Amino acid sequence: MMAEVEKEMVVQKSSNLKKQYGKVNFTGRGGFASVFSAKDLTSKKNESVAIKKLPHNTEKEKLNNLCEIAFLKVCVSHPNAVQYIKSFLVQPENEIWLVTEFLHGGTLSEAARVHTFIERHIAYVAREVLRALKFLHDNKFAHRDLKSTNVMMSINGSIKIIDFGLCADFTNGPRTNMVGSPFWIPPEMIKKEPHSLKVDCYSLAVCLLELFLMAPPHSTSGIKCMYMAVTKGLHDQIPKTASYEAATFLRKALEVDPEKRATANQLLDEPWVAEPGLSKGISEVLRDIFLTNTINDMGLY
């Protein structure tokens, strides 16, 4: 799969790409890359795109970059994964420009900080992310870095996972390396025990807690959150106001023992995410959230 990606890679001069994408605007920085927004001036409607710039120098960087592109290509048909468009090996900078669709909205993290979500809408987010996870897991892939900044929420109500840089193939069984981010990392990874597909189910549950609590559990300290995750679990962080169905779902996803933790398929069968009408009103909520965020960023309040 990666050999095919490398073969298809288009080598391009940065000066030529600037003609294609015009002004490239910085939007954020992750652990391994910087992300920009731009317009594809070669498209009929000058469509907006997101460009992730990745260093492509060391063997490890090259392997990670090719892996991420390969996983994006696998997910290109899924509505709950960011849509891959193309990638370039840019010279003389020796970096990858990974071009995907631009989602008008923001991250789950941004939304959780400024809005108290009703439970129905939290269940909707859970269902949409689970659909992406089911697709990945059915193909023996795990995202392994599911966190609130890697869940995009668009103003039309669509929910998509992004950033496949730590995604891995589990066809040959569990792995033991620890990757991910402190608040969302599952207990088995912290203990450096073998981990597999269910790591994503745990991380999703932490994202959902973030929507309930407007912050990650034990938000003042990632180290404390990791310690509590391993020693006690995070069940005590489930709000007392959560419905029985929501609490049951979260308990199953937050199970410390991965052998007892529910799979993505099992979680999709939970009554909490099977209720009709979960998406009602979500697009209006997200439009209000991200319009307010934009106005605040512009200093107009």
UniProtKB/TrEMBL annotation:
PANTHER family: SERINE/THREONINE-PROTEIN KINASE SAMKA-RELATED-RELATED, SERINE_THREONINE-PROTEIN KINASE SAMKA-RELATED. Belongs to the protein kinase superfamily. STE Ser/Thr protein kinase family. STE20 subfamily. It comes from the Eukaryota. Keywords: ATP-binding, Nucleotide-binding. The keyword Nucleotide-binding applies. This is Protein kinase domain-containing protein. It holds the Pfam family Pkinase. The lineage of its organism: Eukaryota, Amoebozoa, Tubulinea, Elardia, Arcellinida. The keyword Amino-acid biosynthesis does not apply.
